């Protein structure tokens, strides 16, 4: 813990020093942190000896509550897909709105042709 505290202080993560007390495990993550946060949260539920103390995400020191909140969020890819879907929905509605008069005219013309053929 002493060496980790020294390294955290040198790296500019002074808030991390308070978490480096007692038995400590450190996880380094490159990429999506929410997946690892989910795994740690789930493992902590099964193993009460594992206590989440906090961490550093994006250069900011975060509490255990923040890590648990991150675990509840969907992954980055899922969030991006949700945003893309929200952006796409108004465009689809606009396209359907613009196509509606032409579609109605085509159906009307088809009905007129069918009625003349039947007569």
Can you tell me about this structure?
By secondary structure, the chain is mainly α. It folds into two domains: 2-72, no CATH class; 74-119. The chain is 63% helix and 7% strand. It contains four helices and two strands, in the order H-H-E-E-H-H. The chain has helices at residues 2-10, 33-46, 64-72, 76-118; strands at residues 54-57, 60-63. The protein has a two-stranded antiparallel ribbon. It is rod-shaped and about 95 Å long. The model has no long low-confidence stretch (mean pLDDT 83).
**What oligomerization state is this entry in?**
single chain
Q: Decide which structural class fits the backbone.
A: mainly alpha
Largest sheet: 2 strands, antiparallel
Strand order in the sheet with the most strands: 1-2
- Strand content is 5-15%
Q: How many domains?
A: 2
Helix content: 55-70%
- Unreliable spans are none
Shape assignment: rod-shaped
Order of helices and strands: HHEEHH
Radius of gyration: 28 Å
Nearest-integer average pLDDT:
83
Intertermini distance: 93 Å
Annotation, overall tally of beta strands = 2
List the helices and strands and how they pair.
Layout: H1 2-10, H2 33-46, E1 54-57, E2 60-63, H3 64-72, H4 76-118
Helix pairs in contact: 2-3
